[in-house]
């Protein structure tokens, strides 16, 4: 099966690189500058176990002609609209599109652009980043890629995809509840992202600060109320476990949004926080903490554009 990994950044470089190393037929859709770097230096992946290097197969949007069996979509949410037009020639009648983006609304956008049946649900759990040379760093042992049909069916095509992704050097899991898992991932990520960006420190630092635990609990309560209004069917232990995990004073947890912010890079403020604020507004919820986090990141975005 031919796999097109759209984007060769932190997540695309890691999961796509691992798949290529495991012998799968992987091509990366890249822009010119990233392509030049990868041609010159290869795709270097630093993991807690050591460094590996793959010579990746690359394609530019202008060269895309054939369709692929699987498209793994690994761009940031703010690049989605543009990139969908660019990888459109790769999408045929049988192509599956697996997005790893944070948030929920990208799924609807992919379905609108390519048809409901083309997209499956997906998410990844990893702490990955690119360094100044464009090399991929997997910063912790976390390496999960989770996917499933939106309606939970164990279809022939999803089982085939599962076979393709298993035993490729990361933790791959087929989920029968992927939409629910995506909501829960967003709940967690938006909470950690909003809290760490607003407070400018990791979760342990916020937990140890005066008023920190109460702030964390109140923030998570707001996020949970919003995602429930958005369609998430709440599992009660999730909120309690999230608050417990996020108030651990020893936690060094941050998020990709926090890492991007500390490096002065664009962040997914709209996709991770703005979309929550929109749901809250529509549902008439009072969510001052989430709103404050969104406003804060919107000011940050304006500053880095200057
Ligand atoms: N990093 C992490 O630890 C985690 C990230 N996520 C989520 O995964 C998603 C991807 O994040 P991440 O991998 O960190 O992002 P990165 O910024 O590291 O990588 C995104 C890549 O997409 C590429 N890209 C953008 N537009 C195009 C285009 N038109 N054509 C080809 N390539 C393009 C960029 O290439 P270029 O160099 O040309 O700009 C960049 O290399 C996000 O939604 C994020 O929230 C989820 C879990 C963990
Ligand atoms: C949940 C977490 C922190 C790890 O996968 C993440 O998704 C991110 O950093 O974007």
UniProtKB/TrEMBL annotation:
SUPFAM superfamilies according to UniProt: 6-phosphogluconate dehydrogenase C-terminal domain-like, NAD(P)-binding Rossmann-fold domains
EC number(s) stated in the UniProt entry for this protein: 1.1.1.169
Catalysed reaction, written as an equation: (R)-pantoate + NADP(+) = 2-dehydropantoate + NADPH + H(+)
Domain Ketopantoate reductase C-terminal: 178-299
Pathway: Cofactor biosynthesis; (R)-pantothenate biosynthesis; (R)-pantoate from 3-methyl-2-oxobutanoate: step 2/2
Signal peptide: none
One GO biological process term: pantothenate biosynthetic process
Domain of life the protein comes from: Bacteria
A Pfam family per the record: ApbA_C
InterPro entries xrefs: 6-PGluconate_DH-like_C_sf, 6PGD_dom2, ApbA, KPA_reductase, KPR-Related, KPR_N, NAD(P)-bd_dom_sf
GO molecular-function terms, A-Z: 2-dehydropantoate 2-reductase activity
Keywords: NADP, Oxidoreductase, Pantothenate biosynthesis
GO cellular component assignments: cytoplasm
Gene3D superfamilies: N-(1-d-carboxylethyl)-l-norvaline Dehydrogenase, domain 2, NAD(P)-binding Rossmann-like Domain
Domain Ketopantoate reductase N-terminal: 3-151
Record family assignment: Belongs to the ketopantoate reductase family.
Its job: Catalyzes the NADPH-dependent reduction of ketopantoate into pantoic acid.
Protein name: 2-dehydropantoate 2-reductase
